[in-house]
Amino acid sequence: MNQFQYYTPTKVIFGKGTEEEAGELVKEYGCKKVLVHYGSGSVKKSGLLDRIFRSLETAGIAYISLGGVVPNPRLSLVYEGIELCKKEEVDFILAVGGGSVIDSAKAIGYGVTNEGDVWDFYEKKRTAQACLPIGVILTIAAAGSEMSDSSVITKEEGWIKRGYSSNYCRPKFAVMNPELTMTLPEYQTMSGCVDIMMHTMERYLNHTENMELTDGISEHLIRTVMKNAKILLADPENYEARAEVMWAGSLSHNGLTGCGTDGGDWATHQLEHELGGMFDVAHGAGLAAVWGSWARYVVEARPERFAQFAVHVMGVEESEDVMQTAQKGIEAMEVFFQSVKMPITMKELGISPSDEQIAELAEKCSFFGKRTIGCVKMLDREDMRRIYMDAR
Questions:
Q1: In the chain, fewer beta carbons within 10 Å around the N or the C end?
Q2: Contact 277, 364 (CB under 8 A)
Q3: Which positions fall inside the Fe-containing alcohol dehydrogenase-like C-terminal domain (predicted)?
């Protein structure tokens, strides 16, 4: 097991009706004015936004609001939020939504507290030195951004999707009421489940040995999400299943499943980011569409690890042929994706990129030939192109 640091400063308030505590939670930080940041009209139609406003008013907290966050959150709205916060002297951001809203809130927080263009951080040109404090009312179990140090933003010019990580942006608190996820469409729920699994699988598929405890946590987390995803297909209002998935989402991306590893692979996420940037697809569904092609491309570099995954997670019977066991595990995961109505190819995802577009995806993913990705097997631009081709 490698040396590691584990830092999870986010206070979690979990359970039914917990969104009613929003005002008092914000008040603990002594702020004077809050930006309530949210996505579409669903939080309005459900009455959630009004409940949040009333809670803030009861606590004597002044606020303004900014909606309009979309999946694969846009840099243009981040800029708008930065200017609004500066004008209104906002000193706290309350994100009401899922990963896209939280990521947008983090980017706004960076932009308010640091000089220059916030996009510089996502382009890795410089590092942030601060972020406005952020609180979360979670409505979608998927990204894990409510407890993570990461944020992903899409720049419309060139449709470039980039991520940035810093402990400055970790939310101060996360309110998690599983009931708030019950109105999600089936596709969004299943896409979220895949995202949670992939956050754990990216860390699990690595080159580190002797991690029995971390591996056990990761394996059980993935199996728990798989089990409850199937329950939610049949019974979308099952509170216990919603609760298991919501908590798994936070634990999958707060660093717990990466303790002692080499950091994990993350190539599948990088490959999907470009799909999301170019085609605006749902993140979890995009991950499912490329994962199998990535796994088959790199499995020979780490067959023992894939075989362990196959046996411990997918329930594959272990054979003397390690590669055969590993391949069966990959196939079993793809069967699971399809069983919860997730795609395993780009065609099933609903897109059909041309050869030229695939070349462009590889160009952007490799930062125009300036970087490699992955740790199971280091991938260059040509490797990326081949995986995209296989996934098509």
A1: N
A2: yes
A3: 190-390
